[in-house]
Amino acid sequence: MSERTVQLGSAAPGDVSRWRWAMADGVVLTGRALAHWVRQPAQVLVGLLFPVLLVVMFGYLLGGAMTVPGGGDYREFLLPGMFAMTMVFGVEATYAAVATDLARGVTDRFRSLPMASSAVLTGRAAADLLHAAVALAVMLACGWAVGWHPRAGLPAAAGAVGLLLLLRFALIWVGIHLALVLRRPESVVVLQILVWPLGFTSSAFVASESMPGWLGAVAGWNPLSATVTACRELFGNPGSGGGSFAAEHAVILAVAWPLLLVAVFLPLSVRRYRHLAG
């Protein structure tokens, strides 16, 4: 029996060595996910360029017909919404990766190894958050290229980026939990059915004030709308105003919604992983 196995088996709960090994295992599995992306650059490239295509389509093909409440350039209104949508689109990749590992028996092999059980989930979450950071950087560069600029200062812009990554972190756990429940890669269509309504019933593309009353209320309380509105405010872009409670407290809700999702889906994911059939 290896020294590491002995340490893991004999360490008491809360022992520093167990945390150290768990972190090391998580780093290894994060590297595994990143290595897959290096070997499959086409898939990563398509995922990065798809939101750019949406910026071109909405910003240039449809943007001329769009009116921003209070005035302002539509592309500056659109870009914070597209940043948030990029974070949402990534949940499908999270789901597909976890479900594929389950279907191929890779997860069962990990569970049979002398490694921290938490590493499988934390490694996936860390890798997907790194991927989201790269995707967000690409979108920020795209926005800069089409004339978008943050106008409220660097600290506020950094806060907006932090809110976007917080939203992505919360959605990672939603994707992990759904994958552990459905367990089939082809079931990603179920997630797509959820993702697109979430995006288009938000204020990412148009202001909720321009929607019918009931739909505007739904869009205003959409978790994605909270992040979008907060980012418009922190970036200093048009369209951040509004008289509703959700619009006036967008920054608070942009923190509260993701934390609520993490509080619900992270424990559910851990519990579901621990009860997977061997």
Automatic annotation (TrEMBL):
It is found in: Cell membrane; Membrane. This is Transport permease protein. Residues 42-276 form the ABC transmembrane type-2 domain. The keyword Cell membrane applies. Belongs to the ABC-2 integral membrane protein family. GO terms for cellular component: ATP-binding cassette (ABC) transporter complex. GO terms for molecular function: ABC-type transporter activity. PROSITE patterns: ABC_TM2. It is a multi-pass membrane protein. The chain crosses the membrane at residues 42-62, 82-104, 125-146, 152-176, 188-207, 250-270. Keywords: Antibiotic resistance, Cell membrane, Membrane, Transmembrane, Transmembrane helix, Transport. It comes from Micromonospora endolithica. The keyword Transcription does not apply. Pfam families: ABC2_membrane (PF01061). InterPro entries: ABC2_TM, ABC2_TM_bact-type, ABC_2_transport, Nod_factor_ABC_transporter. One of its GO terms (biological process) is response to antibiotic. It comes from the Bacteria.
